[in-house]
Amino acid sequence: MKASVFVGTSLDGFIARTDGALDFLPAGGGEPHGYDEFMASVDALVIGRKTYETVLAFDAWPYGKKPVFVLSSRALPAAPADAIVEHMAGPPAEIVARLSARGVRHAYVDGGITIQSFLRAGLIQRLIVTRVPVLIGSGIPLFGPTTSDIALKHIGTRQYASGLVQSEYEVGVLTEM
Fold this sequence. Notes:
The chain is of the alpha/beta class.
């Protein structure tokens, strides 16, 4: 199973404010920057509980009929009636094995802790990071501590009229520090 990340960050590397607010991101995602095409390429989403709770507060469920697997050791708030949501728990390798056994070929991994744990486990193959031209000073970082270097191969960088800058990487082999 392939796992990819598509995420927006402040220029200083935060995916949300300390309280989880996303108010620094462009409303509605801003101008088209490949999100719809990316979503069309994935079979399912794997997100953390905090991301799930943030998305529940949106005006509309953003994932359509894509299955969403929410990682948490606690019970989840109820999903919207039209959403396909399943609670899962376990280490990233176990989650990938379970999803792969269920026929998931390409998963979108989202949420700070979830992205970090999948990266540390060597289970992310593609990173697409869109930087918003704003410094917020503090917040929830996209990348946390790692036990080893994570090699990245730059695929390309695009800039948009609004000032968004998007870079895509293939994730390489982990090397011990």
